Amino acid sequence: MWEFKFLPPGRGLWMMGTDYIYERGSAALNNCAFVSTAEIDTDFAEPFCFLMDLSMLGTGVAFDTKGAGKVTICTPQTGEYTHVVEDSKEGWTDLIRVILNAYVGKARRPAHIDFSRIRPMGSPIRTFGGIAPGPAPLIECVNNIDKVLGQAAGKRITSGMITDLMNIIGKCVVSGGVRRTAELALGFPDDDEYLQLKDPALHRDQLMAWRWASNNSVIAREGMDYSRAGGQTAKNGEPGYFWLENARAYGRMKDGPTWADAKVAGTNPCAEQSLESYEICNLVETFPSRHATLEEYLRTLKFAYLYAKTVTLIPTHIERTNAIMLRNRRIGLSQSGIVDSFERHGRRQHFRWCDEGYQYICKLDRIYSQWLCVPESIKKTSVKPSGTVSLLPGVTPGIHYPHSRYYYRTIRIDKTSPLIEPLRRAGYRIEESVYGDNTWVVYFPVREKYFRRSKSEVSVWEQVENVAQIQYYWADNQVSATITFKPEEAKDIPYILELYETRLKSISFLPLREHNYPQAPYQEITADIYEQAVSRLKPIDFQAINTDEAQDLYCDGDRCMIEVVMPTPEPEQQEVPFEEIAVPASEESN
Fold first, then answer.
1. C-beta of residue 413 within 8 angstroms of C-beta of residue 442
2. Are 361 and 252 in contact (CB under 8 A)?
3. What does the alpha-carbon distance between residue 374 and residue 220 come to, in Å, rounded to a whole number?
4. Which of 178, 211, 397, 587 allows an S-S link to 60, with CB 3.0 to 4.6 Å?
5. How far is CA 5 from CA 2, 51, 293, 297, 348, in A?
6. How many CB atoms lie under 10 A from the CB of residue 516?
7. Reported confidence tier of residue 529, pLDDT bands at 50, 70, 90
8. Domain residues of the chain, as ranges?
9. Around Cβ 583, how many Cβ atoms within 10 Å?
10. Are 287 and 6 within 8 A, CB to CB?
11. Helix, strand or coil for residue 320?
């Protein structure tokens, strides 16, 4: 690990071994989760509260819209009592549970809500880390729920309402500043309302207010007509695609259908893990390009496996989740720097490493599961999108190509974070977030020292083929990949989906155009702009910061961030000293 052959996720570096895990459970060690809304007619508020609970631990949560049409919204009845909100994540979640259940007649809305026990904005949160946001984000969350459901009395809940409620809760967690949040919505390709949720011509106000909080995908079916959804993807990159039946039927595509994971209901926010409803998972990242031989890489896989399997031995605070975890023991051994490995070892050699590495992991799992007297892991390997973790060893993220030789990497940091002033004094460009999520956006200038091709020089077809090959040789869960495409390639997307539907489990797309949206995570710059930006930088002084109050992170590919202070940066990273920067969290999930 100290040689950057593998790394736990940022949350593992931050939380593993702490008293919090033994006192509160292992949920904070897990990157991501999934929850279905299919049973909201039985317990309306539970899926939303599950998402809120885990999001406040930094775990990314995906959800589906299967609950659409299953409950009728009513006008809440008011009870003559005061609801006192406790100063804890449980206290916040309990209030949202009451508010939501009141809209389906399963609770009475309190006549008064007392927020006085919530510590004021700026106070330290010592048990879990971070800075208290005060009650404002929670108050706004309740008001936004009222905006969505207050005008829906007598109507059946829709996919749009479900997505809005999840997004509103996600915004509350982000605005609270204690955690970032990652969400993925899974809808259906024939649902017009769902497909139009992010259409700025129809819903600009909601898009700016909270609908930015999730990436939206559809549950794809083999043999479906991809022309409509694919045409929409060609415009703005959404929806993404998740082939649920493939996730249920297959491990690695090479091994054929086994249906060993037939209870899969969805995926995580970055779509690299097959998951049942209320299931969580943990990830660990390996870097094959930093290994000279297969034997060396196999040794690394052993230690990475042992970390991931260990996390499954520690129960969470959620009984339903524990029951699934005890049965599945699902883990996700990931690879980052895959493109680097292609360059160093060659594609064929890398795929051989994948194949032999997977067989070795299966062998390890049989041995150690028997020793531990637990079930073998139902699935073991994946490719996560990666973020800051891939910056530490200086490799490309996941299966993605580098953005360009020179670019800005933007990181979002809460406005109350003590990191802001040291970064400002060091000369980094800092802007207020345009999304009103109570964060600053910091611009880090980056130069790729080992650079061959940027993502703009790689065809959309080659990128998709890479994903299919890794799904074949390595990932028995899934491969998280955002495929970038040029304007002239947009017309190919429906054909790509049709041709690859039997070889993929998940995929997403992003138009390759500069400034597709404000404050994008990667922004290409010229060599001159890079040199000017770097010339203004000074060493960062973190001496006055209490790193025990670091913020959390999760598995979202654009915003996976961890608190790390490296004593000596690696030589190839000296131009852009990410290792010297302690960056709080965007999962995911994760």
1. yes
2. no
3. 34
4. 587
5. 8, 33, 12, 8, 21
6. 12
7. very high
8. 1-30+221-400+454-513, 41-188, 406-447+516-535
9. 26
10. yes
11. helix
Tell me the mean pLDDT in the region 261-283. 97
CB 550: neighbour CB atoms within 10 A?
24
Angle of helix 493-500 versus helix 227-236 axis, rounded to 10: 130
Q: List the structure tokens of 32.
A: 């991501």
Of all residues in the chain, the percent with pLDDT exceeding 90 is 70
Token representation of residue 368: 């150690």
The predicted model gives 232-251 an average pLDDT of: 96
* Rg value, the chain, Cα: 23
- Amino acid 423 reads L
Q: Which two tokens stand for residue 465?
A: 């083929």
Pick the CATH number of 406-447+516-535 from 3.40.50.1100, 3.90.1390.10, 2.40.50.100, 3.40.190.10: 3.90.1390.10
CA dist 221 → 216, 379, 401 (Å): 16, 22, 28
Residue 196, pLDDT > 80, answer yes
How buried is residue 438: exposed, middle or buried, by Cβ count under 10 Å (0-12/13-18/19+)?
Answer: buried
Question: Around Cβ 93, how many Cβ atoms within 10 Å?
Answer: 22
* Half-sphere exposure of residue 64: CA atoms within 13 angstroms, side-chain side: 26
* Dihedrals phi, psi of 422, to nearest 5 degrees: -60, -40
Q: Is 272 one of the annotated active-site residues of the chain?
A: yes
Residue with tokens 């109507």: 155
pLDDT digits over 58-86, tens only? 899 999 999 999 999 999 999 999 999 99
Measured in whole angstroms, the distance separating CA 283 from the mean position of its chain's CA atoms is: 11
For the question of residue 270 being annotated catalytic, the response is: yes
Residue 317 DSSP class: S
Mean per-residue pLDDT of the chain: 89
Catalytic pick from 183, 238, 272, 501? Answer: 272
State which CATH number among 1.10.3720.10, 1.10.10.10, 2.60.40.10, 3.20.70.20 fits the domain covering 1-30+221-400+454-513: 3.20.70.20
| CA gap 300, 536 in Å, rounded | 39
Segment among 273-287, 440-454, 575-589 with least mean pLDDT: 575-589
Verify cis geometry, omega within 30 degrees of 0, for the bond prior to 120. Answer: no
CA distances from 22 to 28, 97, 358, 512, 590 (A): 11, 27, 31, 45, 21
pLDDT of res. 251: 98
Q: Pick the catalytic residue: 270, 281, 354, 560?
A: 270
Q: Is the dihedral of CA 128, 134, 140, 142 positive or negative?
A: positive
The pLDDT value given to residue 395 = 87
Which pLDDT score, from 0 to 100, does residue 578 have?
A: 32
Burial of 376 (0-12, 13-18, 19+ CB in 10 A): middle
Is residue 459 helix, strand or coil? coil
Q: Model-level pTM?
A: 0.85
Tokens 């896989």 belong to 301
* Residue 414, strand partner residues: 439
Q: What angle (nearest 5°) sits at the alpha carbon of residue 46, between those of residues 42 and 48? A: 130
